[in-house]
Write a structure and sequence with these properties.
The structure is a single chain. The protein has 184 residues and is mostly helical. The chain contains twelve helices and no strands. The protein has one domain (35-176): Hypothetical protein, domain 2 (Endonuclease III, domain 1). 61% of the residues lie in helices and 0% in strands. It is globular and about 50 Å long.
Length: 184
């Protein structure tokens, strides 16, 4: 069967245990309500820049371990020791700019949580923006969040449409959860 969305076709052509198939079927486009999980997705999108998504999916567990299960509060308090530890960690993508961006962004999210109650509430408050307005907001708010990173983060967490074609069975599973893009 041919699917309207190339990622659907690509991932569904893989064995069921392939990381792309698992991500497609269980994560991509599903709404996320937990702030640490949202931040984890943002970290992965930032670290993916210039690399293949399959590489990041294969390292997803390593990233969770290296970044304290994406705990915003812990990452915001990382020290120079933590920065060096991450630069030396062969299980993740070792890029100082991206590591520093993750730590900086954790601190920004703490500020957003203070002001809005949660990172998710900040996202909800700004929804529905169009893609360009989201990109502008993310560039103003965070480090290392260009157009593609912002777009993929928002699509993968249910804030922008486009993750699955209506002909994909996962589309209907996501629709049952009423992601933000469906309610705008």
């Amino acid at each position: 069967m041919e699917y309207a969305n190339p990622y659907c076709e690509f991932s569904l052509s893989k064995p069921l245990d392939d990381v792309n198939c698992i991500y497609h079927d269980t994560q991509y486009g599903f709404p996320i309500s937990d702030d640490d999980e949202l931040f984890g997705r943002l970290i992965l999108e930032i670290f993916q820049a210039g690399l293949s998504w399959t590489l990041l999916l294969n390292k997803q567990q390593n990233f969770a371990k290296a970044f304290d299960n994406f705990s915003i509060e812990i990452i915001a308090n990382y020290t120079d020791y933590d920065r060096e530890r991450l630069v030396k960690d062969a299980g993740i993508v070792r890029n100082k700019l991206k590591i520093n961006a993750a730590i900086h962004n954790a601190n920004i999210i703490l500020d957003l949580q203070e002001e809005y109650g949660s990172f998710k509430k900040w996202l909800d408050t700004n929804h529905p923006l169009d893609k360009m307005a989201w990109v502008k907001l993310f560039k103003k708010t965070f480090k290392f969040t260009g157009g593609e990173i912002t777009n993929e983060f928002l699509m993968s967490t249910g804030y922008l449409s486009g993750t699955h074609g209506e002909d994909c069975p996962v589309y209907h599973e996501i629709a049952k959860q009423n992601p933000p893009w469906m309610s705008s």
